Recover the amino acids of this structure.
C-alpha cells in the first residue's frame, strides 16, 4: 500500500515544493508534511508518517541528526536521505543512523527520488514480512530464503532504475558523478590513461521547434541507443543533461578516443540525423579530454576540459571534434591523433 503520510525535511522552500510534488506524483493521495529542519522534526507527531524524505544540508538540516531522532521515536520508519554531493563521511554517518537509501538533492531529480522512495518502502515492507515469518515460525526456512531473494532482486532492480535516465536508457548524472570519481581515482593510482568524451547535439532546438518535443525525445532516445551500441564494454555512457552526453573511457589513449568519436559521428549521420528532419541539420559536436594530455588534477577538471573542447568543436562548426590541449585552457584539432 502507498504511504498515507510522508515527512519531507528540506530547508529550501523551492526544492521542498518540487519534492512534495514528486512525492504526490509517486504516491497519489498521500499527504506531505513539510519540516524545514531538525528542530521542527522534534516537534512533529510521527504517528501517521510512513516514510521520511530528509535533505542532508548541514548546518541548516543535518540528516544524521534527523534520522537519529526519528529512529528513537519511530524505529523501523524508512528514511531516504538526499545529498548534493555523496561525500563518504556523510554517507557513513547517514547509514549508521539507519537511513535506507541516499539519493540526489536536486529539484529535477523526481524520477530517481521516486524510485528510491518506492525502494525504501518495498525493503521495509519485505523486512517486516521477514520478521513476522521468523517470529511466528509459521513458514519454512525455504520460504524465508525465497523472500530474502526477492528482497535482494527488488532492491537491485530499483537501484538500477534509480541510476538510469528513463528517456535514453543510459546512466544518469547522479550515477556518473560516483562512477567518475572512482574511475579517476583508479587511473591516478595506477598511472593508466583515462579519456572523457562530451557530446552535444547541434540543431536540436530546431528539431523541437519543427516537430515538437515528442519527436525531440525520440531523437534523444535514438542517440542514447546509438551511443550504447557504439561504445566498448569497458566504457560508460551517461546523459549529462538536455541533449548532452558523456562517455568515460578507462585505459584509453587519445587516438582510440578520437577513433570512437569519429565512429559516433558517422553512425549518427547515417541513422539519427535522417530521423530528425529539422529545418536545419541535426548533428553531433564532440569534445575530448585525455588524462595523459591535459593532466587534470581532479575528476571535475577532466569534465571541464572535455566541456572546453566541446565548446571549441561547436564554434568550429557542426559535426566537429576537438581535444583539450596540454595547457588545459585550449583545444586542438584531432587530426594529429586520428588513425
Amino acid at each position: 500500500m502507498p504511504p498515507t503520510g510522508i515527512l519531507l525535511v528540506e530547508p529550501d522552500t523551492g526544492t521542498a515544493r518540487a519534492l512534495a510534488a514528486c512525492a504526490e506524483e509517486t504516491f497519489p493521495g498521500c499527504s506531505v508534511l513539510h519540516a524545514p529542519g531538525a528542530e521542527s522534526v522534534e516537534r512533529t507527531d510521527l504517528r501517521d508518517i510512513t516514510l521520511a524524505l530528509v535533505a542532508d544540508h548541514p548546518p541548516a538540516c543535518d540528516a544524521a541528526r534527523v534520522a537519529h531522532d526519528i529512529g528513537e521515536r519511530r524505529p523501523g520508519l524508512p528514511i531516504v536521505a538526499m545529498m548534493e554531493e555523496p561525500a563518504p563521511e556523510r554517507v557513513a554517518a547517514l547509514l549508521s543512523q539507519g537511513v535506507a537509501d541516499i539519493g540526489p538533492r536536486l529539484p529535477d531529480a523526481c524520477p530517481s527520488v521516486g524510485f528510491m522512495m518506492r525502494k525504501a518502502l518495498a525493503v521495509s515492507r519485505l523486512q517486516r514480512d521477514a520478521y513476522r515469518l521468523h517470529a511466528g515460525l509459521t513458514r519454512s526456512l525455504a520460504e524465508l530464503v525465497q523472500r530474502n531473494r526477492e528482497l535482494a532482486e527488488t532492491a537491485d532492480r530499483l537501484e538500477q532504475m534509480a541510476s538510469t535516465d528513463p528517456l535514453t536508457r543510459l546512466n544518469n548524472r547522479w550515477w556518473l558523478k560516483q562512477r567518475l570519481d572512482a574511475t579517476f581515482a583508479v587511473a591516478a593510482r595506477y598511472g593508466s590513461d583515462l579519456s572523457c568524451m562530451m557530446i552535444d547535439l547541434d540543431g536540436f532546438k530546431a528539431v523541437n521547434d519543427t516537430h515538437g518535443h515528442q519527436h525531440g525525445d525520440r531523437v534523444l532516445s535514438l542517440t542514447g541507443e546509438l551511443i550504447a551500441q557504439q561504445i566498448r564494454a569497458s566504457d560508460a555512457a551517461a546523459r549529462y543533461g538536455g541533449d548532452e552526453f558523456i562517455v568515460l573511457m578507462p585505459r584509453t589513449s587519445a587516438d582510440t578516443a578520437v577513433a570512437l568519436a569519429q565512429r559516433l559521428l558517422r553512425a549518427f549521420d547515417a541513422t539519427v540525423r535522417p530521423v530528425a528532419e529539422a529545418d536545419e541539420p541535426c548533428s553531433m559536436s564532440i569534445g575530448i579530454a585525455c588524462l595523459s594530455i591535459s593532466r587534470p588534477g581532479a575528476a571535475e577538471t577532466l569534465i571541464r576540459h572535455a566541456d572546453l573542447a566541446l565548446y571549441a568543436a561547436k564554434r568550429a562548426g557542426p559535426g566537429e571534434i576537438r581535444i583539450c590541449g596540454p595547457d588545459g585552457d585550449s583545444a586542438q584539432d584531432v587530426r594529429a591523433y586520428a588513425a
Notes: The radius of gyration is 23 Å.
